[in-house]
Write the structure tokens for this entry.
Amino acid sequence: MNKRVLFVDDEQKVLDALARMLRPMRDTWDMSFVGSGQKALASLGAEPFDVLVTDMRMPGMDGCQLLREVRNRYPEVVRIVLSGQSEGEMFLKSVRLAHQYLAKPCDADALRATIERTCTLRDWLANATIKRVVSSMESLPSMPSLYAEIIKALESPDVHVGKVATIIAKDVGMTAKVLQLVNSAYFSLRQHVAGITQAVNLLGLDTIKSLVLSLQVFSQFEEKKILALSIDKVWRHSLRVGVAAKAIMKHETKDPTLIDDAFMAGMLHDMGKFILAANFPEDYVRIKEMAEAEKISLAESEKKLLGTTHAEIGGYLLTLWALPDSIVEAVTFHHSPDHCLASSLSPMPVVHIADMLEHQSRSDHSEERRGSFDERYAEKYSLDRIAAWRDLCAHLSDEESCEDG
Ligand SMILES: [Fe+2]
Ligand SMILES: [Fe+2]
């Protein structure tokens, strides 16, 4: 079935240009072009759409109002902002409401690639309820202690980038959101950013302050809701996997982008567990019970009960937020690294290995009951090399995650 895309802009000439530019796509997409937020809502009420691409500054209903309505009424629709570079304040306001941002003028290839990528993804996650919940998420809740810490730091008169970056780099939710913003087309950076200090520098402390203090983009976990999951345990594990993945990558390459990517992907790899436990707490209890009773991994139990896994769910949110492909890939396939076709070392196998080593170091086999990675990777990365990585990981401490880069 063709994908349905709705474009909204109050300037007819912008709509005409989009229609002209996207003509080659008309066999694959059904496109509608409307001149206002009200007309967009009427179209959405009349027929289903997969993707909304909207301008921000419009008379009557502006982009923020439209995005909010669409998120509330049609959460499954992917929400993309296409707006001018000068609309800084509008951009910040839309941060909680839009999945992705594109800057005008946008070339046909970038627009096509963004829409195609999100459409492919919508088909791929099978569970419609989870899909709806994930696409209505504004942010991923943070560790309560780190949330309190960042508020305190930002309110202090001698706040500095290093301090803020150190706090953000320890929290899965804050890290994901900051990477989403800094990698959005709004900043028009040629290279993707995966280092948190660089991200905080680019966004600026004033932006971070308004995001956290006035727009309240970050939120904290409500511990009572997620009884089945020890958020503290998963958080510690995530941090350790991030540190281990970074150490392995550093051992293999000097490329700073690959090293940053490996750390970020390691930090974020189990974020789907937070999403599941916070939004589907009862299902999560059943998932854990089934894994215990049938002696299968959590991911297998999730697949049986929900038709998907925490790895795919985390990957889905990160793709919706347009995080770099290498990070999305590592998160999505950290339990199924056979998907890795690349012959060069990428964050995906590194995160898989770091995850296994971290579980093994704590004799926690719940995630990797089926075979050890040594057999699977013996051919690809010699046993000697794997032994060296294991050695490397055995001597790491959590604290090392705080140094960025
Ligand atoms: Fe996992
Ligand atoms: Fe894990």
Observations:
- The beta strands are 3-8, 29-34, 51-54, 78-83, 100-103.
- The chain has 21 helices and five strands.
